[in-house]
Specification:
alpha/beta, Aspartate Aminotransferase, domain 2, seven-stranded mixed sheet, globular, binds pyridoxal-5'-phosphate
Length: 466
């Protein structure tokens, strides 16, 4: 592509696709939004999707499938055993990951349940750059302790390190020395969702594997956003600029014993997932669990048509034009939000923009729930739904090796794939500007209900009175 064309794409954020089907959206009136939010107990999770104008609560399963994927659905072979669709799916996963054994699951956490059951026992310590919340919950469900080894740079929003999703290698060394014999696996989340959607460098994956090998510990990739991670390696890491995304993905996978994926992200489907590995024995154990929980090992809780859509979506997910546009769109949101007065984590990551909630509501102490305030204000001002919650991480001290708790205040504006235009993004940034202007008037919230495990999915809140 010429420099002029490249510059034009970067400036205009023009899409490498056009619209074929549309879905009507409407913004409820302000007075309705107030009533709707109160009825949803001030939690974005309880809002009805129909009452939301722009939904940035997750990029998971919310992408728009392509014409090719919709046509692939028609090829769905619904045979119970060994359907044609399974083999199309298996080939796509094999071609892209390089792993030979492929086990479909209905989504990411189904894969996590199986892997944790096979590998994690009571008292184990699972190390990761950052566990996603369901990953963390599955480790805990087995009686293990999930420990997050992302560096302190995560809390330094203005520090523009290109790979903030990395494991802090000093912490990993300390953790392996102290707890090595209790560590059944190391999980590398690529890209690192809860660490501001930041990527992991190839050098970091290589180093983690080297250290893991010293202790004979397997490394697994939580590869839900592997393609976005590969794009950042191509554009941010020296030596990869001329490599194809496909080759970069293969190299990433080569440092792991296996991976699992929620296909609802980078395979751009509404449901699906898988486990992949070269280890025959481990694959067989996964298949046995799969039959118990999900269905036969050639469909894993999915319909044949879902497998077909994943097979196509995985290939579309590594298309460089698509990835370049997606990353530009998310970056545009981040830049506009920053101009509107939000403090955003930089450099802006793959699947969404992360905002410093405390900087938005400096007058609200943590017990007044500033993240609930931000979600509520985004909905009240513009019908925009986002996710925000304090996320508790177990960390390892570099000095003593002791495990301690640290909270990361997380407000994520996740961008669904191929769904929203630049105008929608501009709308969201304008709402952020309005929220910033009026934030001081927010008096905060209190918890009405919050169960212990994955509590944010069930939580209810109420506004604090003056
Ligand atoms: C990094 C990561 N791992 C695992 C999961 C769980 O996947 P699922 O929602 O498909 O169960 C998610 C979901 O958002 C995720 O972001």
């Amino acid at each position: 592509m010429s420099d002029f064309a490249q510059d034009l794409f970067a400036r205009t954020v023009a899409e490498p696709y056009r619209t074929k089907v549309v879905e009507r959206l409407a913004l409820p009136a302000r007075s309705d939004r107030e009533r709707i939010l109160a009825a949803a107990f001030y939690s974005p999770i309880h809002l009805e999707a129909n009452d939301v104008y722009i939904d940035l609560i997750t990029d998971s399963g919310t992408g728009a499938m392509s014409d090719q994927q919709w046509s692939a659905l028609m090829r769905g072979d619904e045979a119970y055993f060994n359907s044609k669709s399974f083999f199309a799916f298996e080939k796509s996963v094999r071609d892209i990951t390089g792993f030979s054994r492929v086990i479909p699951t209905h989504q990411g956490r189904a894969a996590e349940k199986i892997i944790m059951e096979l590998l994690v026992d009571r008292g184990d310590i699972v190390l990761s750059n950052t566990h996603f919340d369901t990953t963390k919950a599955h480790v805990e469900n087995r009686g293990g302790k999930p420990v997050d080894l992302v560096g302190d740079w995560l809390w330094r929003f203005d520090e523009p390190s290109p790979f903030k999703g990395n494991v802090d290698l000093d912490r990993l060394e300390v953790a392996l020395e102290r707890y090595g014999d209790r560590v059944p696996m190391i999980i590398m989340t690529v890209l690192n969702n809860f660490a501001c959607s930041s990527p992991v460098s190839m050098a970091n994956l290589r180093d983690v594997r080297r250290l893991a090998d010293k202790h004979d510990i397997p490394v697994f990739l939580d590869a839900s956003r592997f393609a976005e991670n590969a794009y950042f390696i191509k554009t941010r890491e020296g030596g990869y600029g001329d490599k194809s995304i496909a080759d970069i993905v293969k190299e990433m996978m080569s440092y792991a014993s296996g991976c699992w994926m929620s296909a609802k992200k980078d395979a751009i489907v509404n449901i699906g997932g898988f486990i992949a590995t070269n280890d025959e024995r481990f694959a067989r154990l996964c298949q046995e669990k799969l039959v118990l929980y999900e269905g036969f090992y050639t469909y894993g809780g999915l319909a044949g048509r879902d497998l077909e859509a994943i097979a196509v979506g995985l290939r579309e997910g590594i298309d460089e034009d698509y990835l370049a546009h997606r990353v530009r769109l998310v970056a545009t949101l981040g830049e506009l939000m920053e101009q509107a007065g939000a403090r955003v984590s930089k450099p802006i990551g793959g699947s969404g923009v992360f905002v410093d909630v405390e900087a938005m509501y400096p007058h609200l102490a943590a017990d007044k729930l500033p993240s609930v305030a931000l979600c509520a204000d985004m909905y009240l001002e513009g019908g925009v739904r986002i996710a925000a919650a304090p996320f508790l991480m177990h960390r390892v001290s570099k000095e003593s090796g002791d495990v301690f708790d640290q909270v990361f205040q997380l407000a994520r504006f996740a961008v669904p794939r191929r769904v929203y235009s630049k105008s929608h993004i501009e709308f969201v940034a304008a709402v952020v500007g309005k929220v910033k202007e009026t934030a001081r008037e927010n008096r905060g919230y209190r918890i009405v209900e919050m169960p212990e495990i994955l509590g944010h999915f069930f939580a209810k809140f109420a506004p604090l009175e003056a």
